[in-house]
Write a structure and sequence with these properties.
By secondary structure, this protein is an alpha+beta fold. It contains eleven helices and ten strands. Keywords: DNA-binding, Transcription, Transcription regulation.
Length: 287
């Protein structure tokens, strides 16, 4: 899928832009935009495609998409042609008029929550009811009341931050002096994940013992070393599968850094929720 840069038509007098859509289909192009986007699926079902993963959705689901996170919502191919889809989107940009607000000391926790979720998340079903109520209040409000409702929406979600799983591979946290070191390690892993790379090798690159490296890596990425490595490899596998460049899943596995097709299938399913063949079939049926 070819990706395009999308410009959100937000009015200049709004820090938070609410958009309601009732159409025959979702916006059909793989795209990204600079703004964060909350997306509440009011009506419709299908699949959310990202650069390295996809997520089935149905009416009532709510997603946060990060800035410049490529995505497209695809309605199920077996849906009736006259089936209407309905959604509510909330767009906001941290570099705009909200910047000075979120840098107030009282909102530092909210800012940290937003920055930690640049790879987006799906709101767990246990919390969609209360989040929908927050969005409904925000949608009806105007001016200052809308801004207050928006902050309460973020606060509501920040309280369950530990239960939110990124839609895409986790990013590196840069909140302390260790950022440059861990960033360099992640760069090194990204350049070498297609071959065998050990914990000891990565730790040595960071000038840490393996035990210290494990703690340090988990603190900054939210993943274990093996978890991060597997995420990178499955991300690559998804790209190869959808690009249809290889005739067998064995070649996809090998060129993604796996030495065992059995391990590849197991890890692929644990991360995406599907087998490689199911992933390809689902992708093919929705493009």
């Amino acid at each position: 899928m070819k990706m395009i840069q999308f410009n959100v038509p937000a009015p200049k007098d709004k820090s938070v832009y609410v958009q309601e859509d009732r159409l025959t289909d979702f916006y059909p192009y793989f795209h990204k935009h600079e703004e964060y986007q909350f997306m509440w699926i009011v009506k419709g079902e299908g699949t959310l495609f990202l650069a390295d993963s996809f997520h089935p959705f149905q009416a009532g689901d709510i997603f946060l998409l990060g800035p410049n996170q490529p995505h497209v919502f695809k309605k199920n191919a077996n849906s009736l042609n006259d089936t209407e889809v309905e959604s509510v989107s909330i767009f906001f940009h941290l570099k705009g008029s909200l910047s000075s607000l979120f840098h107030m000391p009282e909102l530092s926790g909210i800012l940290e929550f937003i920055l930690h979720n640049t790879n987006g998340f799906k709101v767990p079903h246990a919390y969609t009811g209360r989040v929908k109520r927050r969005i409904a209040l925000l949608k009806k409000a105007s001016m200052m009341d809308q801004l207050v409702s928006f902050i309460f929406l973020l606060k509501e979600l920040s309280l369950v931050a530990h239960e939110l799983k990124p839609l895409s591979i986790a990013s590196v946290s840069g909140n302390d002096d260790g950022y440059l070191r861990i960033h360099e390690v992640c760069r090194y892993i990204k350049e070498n994940f297609r071959r065998t790379i050990t914990l000891e090798e990565a730790a040595d690159h960071a000038n840490l013992t393996p035990q210290a490296f494990c703690r340090y890596f988990k603190k900054h990425t939210g993943l274990t070393f093996v978890g991060y490595l597997n995420e990178l490899r499955i991300q690559e596998a998804c790209k190869l599968i959808t690009a249809q460049r290889y005739e067998s899943m064995g070649l996809v596995a090998y060129n993604s850094g796996f030495n065992s097709i059995t391990n590849f299938n197991r890890v692929f399913r644990s991360i995406t929720g599907f087998s490689p063949k199911e992933y390809y079939s689902r992708y093919k049926n929705n493009i």
